[in-house]
Please model this.
Amino acid sequence: MDILSWVTLSLVIATFSLAVAAFWSIRQTHNIQKKEYKRRLLNDLIEWAISITNWRSRSKIIFKETVLTADQRKRQLLMHAHISGEREDFVGLGSRNQYAINVSEKFAGILQDATEGLVADLENYIEFLNDWTQFIADNISENLVESQEYGDYTKKADQLTEQIDKSARKVIEEAVKINVP
Model:
């Protein structure tokens, strides 16, 4: 073999080596991007669940301030407005809820079950808030805070919001358990 053949063979080997290295680099970059995408999805789920638990804290403070309002009619109007506002907040979560379900489907298992459970709890709470605002609107001229029905509504609200908190914590716990290799 002459020198030109050796140079050509060397160039072919070098070109092939560069092609293999480029392929390997692209493959590694793709794998890293897939991992980062999954981590971002999990972080989105966690942030969604945290935003729901944070809402609960803010809502309790506003509700307590409303109940402490001295004027009965003003208190009931404020309660109606607060509960209606809560309902609107949760209805506004609709697209985020669907996104959370779509994300959880990528991981399936307990995380998907926990996410679907939280969304179901939120939907139950929205229905409850509809009933409660209707009750207040229908009885705006009465002193609701002292009525048994109002007490029943507040107890039910506490139970439902505690369930929402529990479900949100479950989503966070399950998302944190997932190890993206």
Observations:
- The radius of gyration is 28 Å.
- The helical segments are 3-67, 72-92, 94-107, 109-138, 148-177.
- The chain has a mean pLDDT of 83.
- Residues 36-177 form one domain.
